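Q: Sequence in, structure out?
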Amino acid sequence: MSLIQTCLPVGSGRGKRPLRQRRKAVLTCPRCAHTSPSDGDWIRTDCPRGTEIRCPDCECVLTVRPAFDDSDTPK
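A: Exactly. Output:
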């Protein structure tokens, strides 16, 4: 997971404390508002359409990531 640094405004005491870091990609469940990094505690299930990403709290399907086979690879 990539981390990015958050820049602080000029004169904010930047030299006195380290720059804060935050995760770049976070998913939030639209049904129950569970929040976790994209590689966090989400339930991943392989299905014919691809990989379902479900909420661990309410089991709502957030997204289906398509499955690709060798025929989808550029040559």
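Strands lie at 3-5, 21-23, 26-28, 35-37, 43-47, 50-54, 61-66.
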